[in-house]
Amino acid sequence: xxxxxxxxxxxxxxxxxxxxxxxxxxxxxxxxxxxxxxxxxxxxxxxxxxxxxxxxxxxxxxxxxxxxxxxxxxxxxxxxxxxxxxxxxxxxxxxxxxxxxxxxxxxxxxxxxxxxxxxxxxxxxxxxxxxxxxxxxxxxxxxxxxxxxxxxxxxxxxxxxxxxxxxxxxxxxxxxxxxxxxxxxxxxxxxxxxxxxxxxxxxxxxxxxxxxxxxxxxxxxxxxxxxxxxxxxxxxxxxxxxxxxxxxxxxxxxxxxxxxxxxxxxxxxxxxxxxxxxxxxxxxxxxxxxxxxxxxxxxxxxxxxxxxxxxxxxxxxxxxxxxxxxxxxxxxxxxxxxxxxxxxxxxxxxxxxxxxxxxxxxxxxxxxxxxxxxxxxxxxxxxxxxxxxxxxxxxxxxxxxxxxxxxxxxxxxxxxxxxxxxxxxxxxxxxxxxxxxxxx
Length: 440
What we know:
The protein is mainly beta. The chain is 11% helix and 38% strand. The chain contains 6 helices and 26 strands. Strands 15, 16, 18, 19, 22, 23, 24 and 26 form an 8-stranded antiparallel β-sheet that branches. Strand 13 (190-198) and strand 14 (207-211) form a beta hairpin. The protein is elongated and about 90 Å long. 29% of the residues are buried.
């Protein structure tokens, strides 16, 4: 090998060594920061809260805890402006070893502080103790109570023809009292199951039920509108009632004109009534907001709070010359004697069945998620208002719009309040129930 080749080979080796040295991660250098002091750990359900004293040192940048969960390493960090760290996600009550460090601004760890604690029973197992299931229209409903702030999900299972459970749907909620109904099944014997899950991959055992879902069908269109005294009678511009009453079922998502806008009643006309033309044991009403933008379903004059009433027959003798009977706020006569109690007049709600007061709830948007996608998906699914399971069959259904998203009402001092200017809108309404009940 000549001198030129020897030189080139040596240069290549030297360059490679430099490159490798540059790729190697350098270890932080500098003095170790002081350890945390006066530490304690308080067990909580599914975890623990570490409390400590932050060292008075300008070199400390943050505090961190290292631990294992399900055999995998995890790290939690906290700034020097806090003196607590929360460690959670444990499914059992086995002892947990936690190593606490301070970290310097140069990335140097302090000496370790090791502690051990025993978590309390995990939230998912306590919530599972409250889980119950009941037969419902076209499916089943699961109920549970969640007194924790953590999000709990339910995995719904359906038994297939091979006798194996298959995942069907997942839903999550932070509510304290939860009801999740899974529908779309015929009125035939079937086996369902469900188990709870949490954000850390923990799951409960499965709650099963073999049942025959109650029969359910959608009410027919076109709707037969029955205008009672006090009902809204008009609409605004090109958004008539027929937009929701005469067409086949649709969700009208991301449309502008395909909706009903009632007329501004200046304090009147916040109710409307539909004749189902046959008797139904109502199971639910599904409301679809009008959408122009992703945020508008939860703004403007879209319906937010609604009351639903029903009756099997009307008091036709009260349809004329009895306007007080049909008003929303009950009327009273003066008492016969001075100082006596006012005497209530006849009132339509005395004769109608209360099917519930409901609210369109704006869905939560998890951190980092696309709010527009979540809002549009929620509106596409509709907001379902489930009736009590034991309601009596009805033929006439009456809706009272209590509040829209842009206001609490024109009479905030009167309960219940009315929709702002009694002016409201929505894109679609669908009603479901059992029409096999006796019709006479």
